Amino acid sequence: MNEKKRLTHVNSRERDLLIELENLEREVKEKKEAISALQEEIGKTEAEAGRLKIKLVEARVFEKEAESVVMQRLIAMYKYIKQGYVKALADVEEPWQFLRRVKYLKVVMAEDRDDLTEVMDLAMKRRREAKGIEKSLLKIEEVYRKEQIGLENLKISVKEKVFRLMTTHKEKEFHETSVRQLQNAAKDLKLTSLNIPKREVVDVSVPRSFGEMRGKLPFPSQGRIIDGNEFPEGTRQEQQKGVLIELPAAADVRAVFSGRVDFSGKLKGYGELIIIGHGERFFTVSAHLSKRNRLEGDLVQKGDAVGVAGTDGISGGSRFYFEIRKGGRNLDPLEWFALK
What we know:
Shape: rod-shaped
Distance between the termini: 26 Å
Largest sheet: 10 strands, antiparallel
CATH class of the largest domain: Mainly Alpha
Radius of gyration: 50 Å
Strand content: 15-25%
Number of domains: 2
CATH topology of the largest domain: Helix Hairpins
Order of helices and strands: HHEEEEEEEEEE
Structural class: alpha+beta
């Protein structure tokens, strides 16, 4: 995956994270509104429960007072009966007087009983209402507690997503910078090769031109071409037309064809670099060397060591970058090597 593809991938991740954040922020808003409504409901329920508890206390006091009054009356009645209840009824002279006294005693006892029943019913009613409200309050408080936990979890998710978004944004900036650097490096290399004077290499030992060597060029080192995905993350070279070659540590990089060293130096994005001109505006580029063995203007033969491959810093082996160009145009090296 080259830098542009990775940048596209990062942009996609950033868009996805922004959508997730938008959804999470909407959920947080909804949770806050739900919690606010619950807080208001809890306040109302607590106020109602408080009022009922006061009424319940009043009813219980009234109940106790009524019980006390009835009890006093019962005690008085008991004493009255004990001292001569039968006598009280027997003292009457007329039957109608007897009936009136019996009726009076019944009325007094019935009134006391009704008063006590009414007070007890009221107390029971207040008690049931208070318990019902307390039960409702517990339910609302449980929902409120769960909503609060959900809100806290959402806040944590938002923080995590924001952190991921920040990390992704930094990664995006890194890849954007890498793409710009690689584009500038490729542009610089193209300008360098274009600015090399148009001169032909005179070498009587060369039996044919570079253009006739398509599919016949030797490998520039004893190594292997590696896929870009095998390169360690963050160090992959992204130039489209070149190849990465892996070889033993500190191995030599050799000329694939006779020519002249037209550039020997350092170029941003390519590190230590050697460009060899082979005539007819054909050039080979060996980059990311740890050492250059040739200077600008040196004549080289096929197989001459022109530099040493740079270390990858991980496996202990070496890797370098190789290109073939005609003028400012890249050519695919795989079409020019005599691959077995």
